[in-house]
Amino acid sequence: MKHKFNYMRFYLALLWTLLLLFLTGCWSSKEVEELSLTAGIALDKGKDSTIEKEDEEGGYPKRNLITATYQIVSSQAQSKGNGQQKRYINVSETGDSIHQIVREFSLKRESTMFSPHLKNIVISDSLVRTYSLEQLLEQYLRDNEVRLSCMLLISKGLAKEVLESNKKGEIPAFRLSGIADNRNRTTRILPPVSLAKLEGKMRSGASFLLQNVISINGETKFAGAAVIKGKTKKLMGFLNEQELEGVVWINGKRNGGVVKTFDKESKKLIIYEIKSIKSKIIPHVNGNNISFDVNI
């Protein structure tokens, strides 16, 4: 006796087989608690920590050129919802290169560094005077885990101090991004320079500006700009806040801020709010003499 082929059962089996193929997409996923979510990175001149000095005798040979501080968002503080507890952990490691330093973290932490949500990289002035931005940032520019939208800042002083805060519940890396968003309210903040934009600036060979940031007792402020020489990609010097404001006016690319002046007759302070800035630069060349007319 011949059995009739059950098409319905065959199609159901085929459907279940296809569903199983798609349901295996999360086999390699990791829980958020198992990752070290990096929000910010600070780069300073190399200085051994206490643990590194103790391990030096039986450790790995290195010259300790750079100290990298990674700001890790604390998942425990967020899950407990305690506003009085620090929401971040700063961990530092010293080495000869960024690539090596990241691998050194693997010897001390059970969770790997996860940087797709990295907000900013802060570099100390002493480090960028010694090494070019190309040397310092090559790893981040090549690493497909780090997003090129990450913002770059220069610190006058220790960069790791910028990633500290005396306010409970605050994440310093997020605070820096928030301050940068205020650029349409003042003429003393530069447009943020991401890793993607930085690569183009370095390839152009022209000198350029990066936002300078200072930190005093856990309080952070954007103060002036760092001047990067196009030929060497190293720090040349700084512009103070007034000089930076002048550069912004000359560039004519800003839609916010204020201007203060005084009335000559009443001696009273007058504040003007800026809605837009337009400028026109006309160069004049007379032999070896070059001059400019700037109309704002």
Automatic annotation (TrEMBL):
The residue ranges of the Spore germination protein N-terminal domain are 29-204
Task: Tell me where in or outside the cell this protein is found.
Answer: Membrane
What is one GO biological process annotated to this record? spore germination
Record's Gene3D superfamilies?
Answer: Nutrient germinant receptor protein C, domain 3
Q: Which UniProt keywords apply?
A: Germination, Lipoprotein, Membrane, Palmitate, Signal
Q: What is its main location?
A: membrane
Q: Which PROSITE patterns match?
A: PROKAR_LIPOPROTEIN (PS51257)
Q: What does UniProt give as GO cellular component?
A: membrane
Q: Where is the Spore germination GerAC-like C-terminal domain?
A: 224-296
Q: How does it sit in the membrane?
A: Lipid-anchor
Under InterPro entries, the record lists:
GerAC_N, Spore_GerAC-like, Spore_GerAC-like_C, Spore_GerAC_C_sf
Q: Tell me the protein family, please.
A: Belongs to the GerABKC lipoprotein family.
According to UniProt, the name of this protein is Ger(X)C family spore germination protein
Originating organism: Bacillus cereus
Highest classification ranks of the organism: Bacteria, Bacillati, Bacillota, Bacilli, Bacillales
